[in-house]
Amino acid sequence: MATDYDAPRKNEDEQSEESIEELKARRHDKNSGKVDEDETEAAEAFELPGADLSHEELAVEVKPKQDDEFTCMSCFLVHHRSQLADASAMICRDCI
User: Fold this and answer.
1) Quick count: other Cβ atoms within 10 Å of Cβ 87?
2) Do residues 70 and 81 make contact, with C-beta atoms less than 8 angstroms apart?
3) What is the distance between the alpha carbons of residues 81 and 37, in angstroms, rounded to a whole number?
4) Which of 30, 56, 62, 74: disulfide with 95, CB 3.0–4.6 Å?
5) What mean pLDDT, rounded, does the chain reach?
6) Category of 59 on φ-ψ map: left (φ > 0), alpha (ψ -120 to 50) or beta
7) Which of 76, 96, 75, 78 shows the shortest CA–CA distance to 86?
8) Is the pLDDT assigned to residue 74 strictly greater than 60?
9) Is 72 helix (H, G, I), strand (E, B) or coil?
10) pTM over 0.85
């Protein structure tokens, strides 16, 4: 905000004389720009170009846990044994 240093300044008495109505009007002006909008409704209307993947088919082969793998008891991801940080708690290095 630019300040005009040549403009006459108000003393403390003049500043305190501002009316309550004027202060209330300023407060309402600051809040008038806020809009209550449902974010999920706005997100549903927003569509990215080329984002329609309804015709695509996802084919994933799921393999059972191997002998050299473990399931972390913190993040529940399957990791290789080399990522094991705490064997008694079965915690991976990322979760320590």
Assistant:
1) 9
2) yes
3) 48
4) 74
5) 81
6) beta
7) 96
8) yes
9) coil
10) no
